[in-house]
Design brief:
Length: 336
């Protein structure tokens, strides 16, 4: 008797490795949820989870998040949910969200999606939520970070594990998830935003589509095959270093917040005594904690100059406001 299609085997193997780890630390019959958009990546993931989970002592369900951004999105969500049920996943829940807030529609949709996944996971007491990001998604993330001049945090890409979230397919190619769907008779939805649109910059989704369909193919032709794999490997190599630096930055942030001044204000002496790589990570985290969204390197540099290059300059502008130095401490400028 022949085994499964090679692509199906690859996806199942990746999912088995993750679910085996989960099962080792979970009660028998614990629930894992697949975040399924209906696209090839998440649909192949759903099929693999349905196959593997009961074989390692787990149950598998699915969550389909409908952002209601595209015409017919409710129908797309319903079809994805139906395919998940046909695979044997249970429970399967469709959650409709309203996209709003700052940071652009893609960022708002991402925040809404993760909030919805966390809510469903909490209600069903799931031990993990599986996401369908592939090696190609990781490579695109790294390349976009390079283009923006981002630091190691962005270049480290998406973590394989963070809290409840698990990305078991980060070593699997997108082409393999497409083949796995075809081999199993699954019909994936093709998101129109994954196709580059003409005209001026249309946001993060369009930039990613351009990288996917135009930039990476050019790099593959110019530099030879394996560019995506090399970019993903770069993320892996940076992540371990980044995690150590992030821990040190958290310690610095806690120390800089001690001792007088407004709540959350940072002592510039303690900041200035730290290595630049640690200090700037701490400042990035502080800006996010103060509600300044997603600051870029130029914003962190301007705030850093208030700490270690202060010459009496005024406030440093950051997304959504500014930061000032007063009495040897950095804090949001509440006067603006």
């Amino acid at each position: 008797m022949s085994g499964p299609h090679p692509a199906v085997a690859v996806v199942r193997s990746a999912v088995r490795a993750e679910l085996t780890l989960l099962a080792a630390g979970a009660d028998d019959g614990a629930l894992v949820l697949v975040a399924c958009s209906g696209g090839a990546d998440s649909l192949a993931l759903a099929a693999a989870a349905a196959f593997v989970a009961p074989r390692v002592g787990l149950r598998a369900g699915a969550v389909v998040v409908d952002h209601r951004l595209l015409a017919g999105s409710a129908d797309v969500a319903a079809r994805a949910a139906d395919q998940c049920r046909d695979l044997g996943l249970s429970p399967v829940e469709v959650v409709a969200t309203t996209v709003g807030g700052s940071g652009g529609p893609e960022a708002a949709a991402r925040m809404g999606r993760y909030a919805a996944l966390a809510d469903v996971a909490d209600r069903y007491r799931a031990v993990a939520v599986l996401l369908g990001h592939t090696l190609d998604d990781q490579a695109e993330t790294v390349l976009l970070g390079l283009a923006r001049g981002s630091g190691a945090r962005s270049l480290a890409g998406m973590p394989a594990r963070r809290g409840l979230l698990r990305r078991p397919l980060l070593g699997v190619r997108r082409a393999q998830t497409l083949e796995a769907c075809e081999a199993q008779g699954l019909v994936p939805w093709h998101d129109p935003t994954n196709t580059p649109a003409d005209g001026p910059d249309l946001g993060e989704a369009n930039r990613r589509a351009v990288v996917r369909h135009e930039v990476l193919p050019v790099l593959e032709r110019a530099l030879g095959p394996g560019v995506a794999l090399a970019l993903a490997r770069t993320a892996d190599q940076l992540r371990a270093d980044t995690e150590v630096l992030e821990d040190l930055a958290d310690q610095l942030l806690a120390a800089a917040r001690e001792g007088g001044g407004p709540v959350g204000a940072l002592d510039v002496v303690r900041l200035g005594a730290a290595p630049e790589a640690v200090r700037r990570r701490a400042l990035h985290a502080a800006l996010a904690g103060w509600g300044f969204g997603a600051p870029h390197a130029v914003h962190v540099e301007a705030v850093d100059a208030l700490a270690v290059g202060w010459r009496g300059q005024g406030a440093a502008a950051v997304p959504g406001g500014s930061v000032v130095r007063r009495y040897g401490r950095l804090a949001p400028d509440v006067s603006t």
